[in-house]
Amino acid sequence: MIEFTFFLIIFLLSFSIIYVTNLWLYIEAVDINNFEKINLCCTWGEKIEDGLLTYKILASDKHKIIIQNAIDDWNQNLNGLIRLEPSVNSSADIEIKLNENKSGKIAGQSTINYGPTGFIDNVKIILNEGTFGKSLSFNIIEIISKHELGHAFGIGHSNFENSLMRLTHYNNESLEITECEINAVIDANMWKLKNNSNFPYGTVEKFSICKQ
After folding, report:
1. If 0-12 CB within 10 Å is exposed, 13-18 middle and 19+ buried, where does residue 21 land?
2. Residue 190 and residue 203 in contact, taking contact as beta carbons nearer than 8 Å
3. Closest alpha carbon to 211 in 170, 139, 161
């Protein structure tokens, strides 16, 4: 009986080792680079506790309309998870400035500033009217505005075509905010938007999976 028990224990231990080894081989066989994903950058802290972030637009009237369209589109797709509201004073959580500059190489850029606890404190977005000496269409300026606002919410670049968060964009494109971007914003700020915690914490994930 003792010999049988000893044999059974050895058998079960051997089975566990084989099982774990096979599971590890399975995990290694999954190539995460084949997934459509959006990188996660950073997390807003207590500023989104009330579900609101303030913004300020510094641009000519014709460009203000385009940028406002991008903001309204994010508000509609976020469906109350976070809402962007115009600032009532000189400061804002997100400042968007459009320069009438066409000589640069970058259409848009976001600078994320962090507070003492490591969470996003404010974001400065710079948009340019053109690049390489040529004007950008109103359509592409709106797309770039949406793209930079994605960064402002804490998400990075994607690795697949037809994605708003792709690194490069072209004048003839028409890209929309999709469920993929919304899920990435939720993953970046999961303490509030997924778990409704009272205590902010940064996401441990490096990216949000869109589709395999």
Report:
1. exposed
2. yes
3. 161
In the numeric block, the tokens 């709106």 are attached to 142
Instruction: Measure Cα distances from 72 to 37, 43, 48, 55, 153 in Å.
Output: 24, 22, 18, 12, 14
SS3 content of the chain, % helix, strand, coil (to 5): 40, 25, 35
Per the listing, tokens 């390489």 go with 132
Secondary structure tally for the chain: helices H, strands E: 5, 10
Fold exhibited by the domain 36-211: Collagenase (Catalytic Domain) (3.40.390)
Q: Give the integer Cα–Cα distance in Å for 141 and 149.
A: 12
Helical residues (DSSP H) of 43-175, grouped into ranges? 61-78, 138-152
- pTM (predicted TM-score): 0.83
Domain spans in the chain, listed from the N-terminal domain onward: 2-30, 36-211
pLDDT per position as a tens digit, 175-198: 899 999 999 999 999 999 999 999
Taking only the tens place, the pLDDT of each residue in 132-153 is 999 999 999 999 999 999 999 9
82 Cβ partners below 8 Å, 6+ apart?
48, 51, 52, 53, 153, 185, 189, 193
User: Could you give the C-alpha distances from 67 to 19, 100, 126, in angstroms and in order?
Assistant: 54, 14, 12
**52-68 as b/e: b if 16+ CB within 10 A:** ebbbbbbbeeebeebbb
